[in-house]
Design a protein that fits this description.
Shape: globular
Low-confidence stretches: none
Number of helices: 17
Helix content: 40-55%
Structural class: alpha+beta
Strand content: 15-25%
Number of strands: 17
Mean pLDDT: 90
Radius of gyration: 23 Å
Distance between the termini: 12 Å
């Protein structure tokens, strides 16, 4: 049943009353004033939480010219994980399966063939144990392992999903670190920041690490990844396609600043969007130039946890500041989307490294109108399609001799 025209018009009219109360130009003015006066640096209770790594700046360049720039890297690699999404079965098992893949540009077919698979399982039945050692298949190109999770957060599905994804990604990155010569781009942040949210039932993330060896394994893998690539002098970066953080907005609000934006990305979008008058009184977005910020260092939100050795609960080999997060934000006016690029300071403290990563990413976003090619290729390699997911679930049902535990919404939306 669809909306009748009278209902549709009524809802639209109601919504329009909200729209008329919002002054978009005022929000832009606030964004400009905040950019000019509040970020160099932005203070928290114990000192700066965000500050420019060099000069605070905004840049813009013609999309077509950027796309034709020569690459500062001879090769580039991407890494991503795909999952089947958490499934609950009538025998009480909650399960997710993730496979990680690494792409190479130019292509490396042997590397593309390789997979790391993690199946994470949770059960409230204490007698159920599912952990296994690594097992290999496909002539040794791929390997997999089953891990058993314990209660970590309020949502068990989120836990089995996060552990599967992070373990697969980090183990695959470490396994193939020696295949990367110039640049590795993770699809997402450089650290597993979702784990910070799980620590709300514990005194700290370090306590969670002590209580759960899988969380400790995940965090240690990412720390070792930073150290391994720092030793190789090869930058390790994260490309966040859809940044959802509100840490900057919250920090500004805590300092008494007006914050009319729903997220940090919305703030940077207004700071970076460039417009011009058309026909005298209407603004139009300039769509032929990509725009981006300079680099900032951040201890906002989860970034601060990963920069603090006492909070992290994992031994580290490098000075603490090497693990801090640096980032810049790029805005694509063609899609009206904001992307975030992260580097640990082990790499970002080098101006040459920052410039190379910035030139590479902006050129790639200009050329691809989206994520850089290595990230897109890794996503294609790691993705598990809808048909494959359903077939895997049917195989799991036969293996468990137990049907998937579905509810009304599962049935309703699968039929739509």
């Amino acid at each position: 049943m669809t909306l009748d025209p009278v209902h549709f018009d009524g809802i639209a009219e109601l919504a329009s009353q909200i729209r008329h109360e919002v002054d978009a130009e005022e929000h832009r003015d606030v964004a400009e004033e905040t950019w000019a006066n509040s970020l160099d640096p932005l203070y928290g209770d114990d000192g700066p939480v965000l500050e420019p790594l060099a000069e605070q700046r905004r840049s813009a360049a013609d999309v077509e010219e950027l796309a034709l720039q020569s690459s500062p890297f001879d090769t580039a690699h991407g890494l991503d994980s795909g999952t089947i999404n958490p499934k609950t079965f009538k025998n009480g098992l909650v399960l997710d399966l993730a496979q990680a893949a690494m792409s190479a540009t130019p292509s490396d077919l042997d590397l593309h063939r390789s997979r790391t698979v993690i199946t994470s399982v949770h059960s409230n039945d204490a007698t159920v144990r599912t952990d296994t050692d690594w097992r290999k298949w496909d002539e040794g190109y791929s390997r997999g392992r089953i891990v058993h999770t314990t209660p970590l957060a309020r949502d068990q599905e989120r836990v089995v999903h996060g552990l599967a994804l992070y373990l697969a990604e980090s183990h695959h990155a470490l396994e193939h670190a020696d295949d990367v010569d110039d640049l590795l781009l993770l699809d997402g942040p450089v650290y597993p920041k979702q784990l910070v949210n799980w620590a709300d039932r514990h005194a700290s993330l370090a306590d969670l690490v002590t209580e759960n060896e899988l969380v400790g394994e995940v965090l240690e893998n990412y720390v070792r990844l930073v150290e391994r690539f720092a030793e190789k002098d090869v930058p390790l970066a994260g490309f966040v396609k859809s940044p959802a953080s509100q840490a900057l907005v919250r920090a500004l609000r805590d300092r008494g600043r007006p914050t009319p934006w729903a997220s940090d990305a919305a703030f940077f979008g207004q700071v970076l969007e460039r417009r011009e008058f058309i026909d005298g009184d209407d603004y139009h977005r300039i769509t032929d130039e990509l725009a981006w910020t300079g680099w900032f260092t951040s201890t906002l939100g989860a970034d601060g946890v990963f920069a603090d050795s006492s909070e992290l609960g994992v031994e580290r080999e490098l000075p603490a500041e090497c693990y801090e997060v640096a980032f810049f934000v790029v805005y694509d006016p063609r899609t009206d989307l904001v992307h975030k690029v992260e580097l640990p300071r082990a790499f970002a403290d080098s101006e040459d490294c920052r410039d190379a990563v910035e030139r590479y990413v902006t050129s790639q976003v200009a050329a691809e109108a989206g994520p850089p090619k290595p990230v897109g290729k890794a996503d294609e390699l790691a993705r598990i399609g809808a048909t494959e997911k359903e077939e895997l679930v049917r195989k799991l049902e036969r293996s468990f001799d137990s049907r998937r535990d579905e509810n009304y919404d599962d049935q309703r939306w699968s039929e739509s």
